[in-house]
Task: structure prediction
Amino acid sequence: MKLPEEVNIVEIGPRDGLQNEPMFLDTDKKIRLINQLVESGFKEIEATSFVHPKWIPNLADAEKVMAGIRDLPATFFALVPNERGYERAIQSGVDGISFVLSATDSHSKKNLNTTTKESLKQLAPLVEQAKKDRLKFRASVSTVFGCPFEGNPGLEKIESLVSELYQIGFKRIVLCDTIGIANPKQVYNWMKKLINDFPNIEFELHFHDTYGRGLANVLAGIQAGVKSFDSSIGGLGGCPYAPGATGNISTEDVVSLLIEMNIKTGINMKKLLETSNLLQNFLDKELDSHIWKVSRARKRNGG
Ligand code: ZN
Result:
């Protein structure tokens, strides 16, 4: 099996995970969680979101979280949907922006109140600004592999969207399987074609584990040549438009898979699991991670 030497993991739990939790996690706990993630070895963390607090009350403390972490030695991304969000993000001292848009109009209208085309129009000047501000930036595209309202958008539509994103300046594009419906064959075939057709774009993948295909999809992505993946500690997350959808793929499980296959991630598994324990205490709920469950059962049995 041909495998890369190294794979990058972008930890998105503090943003994509916590935004979907039923409870608000106190700001100081968010800051402690992110501190421990940095100590565990994560170099890129999506720390919060500058979407209007009315839509995502769980992350209404974005400014305060950034103030508590921005001097830590990691690159902190924040999710930004529009100009207002961008201003807040830059004033808070973020290192990077994840600009968000949807591949399908119906999801886009429900989630962002715009069409995909309108999103592109709004994002173009912000990309220019991000370049001037010397920020890292990436486009985070929802519903790429399937939409809860429109089904599979098809590769052709994704190719033309990627092309438009490239034209407005994106070199880093995250393709998100928002409802966890992708399968390894689709991921492999689509990523092979996209990587071949857009050699100057760094593609990243973002999977949800709704149907239990998350890790299989990661492996398919790796086989196709993708070298960066989003994942969420404890498998936190969900999708408000896909009832029953489970969270993002769990960081613990992805890291463990990669370590077992001798792929470097820069992440210390022991410290990561300590961070998972901290998160479990904060949220007081069972985390959705195989490795974490195994490690906890071992501890209980004294082995
Ligand atoms: Zn997600």
User: Anything to note?
Assistant: The pocket of zinc ion is lined by residues 16, 206, 208, 237, 248 (CB under 6 Å).
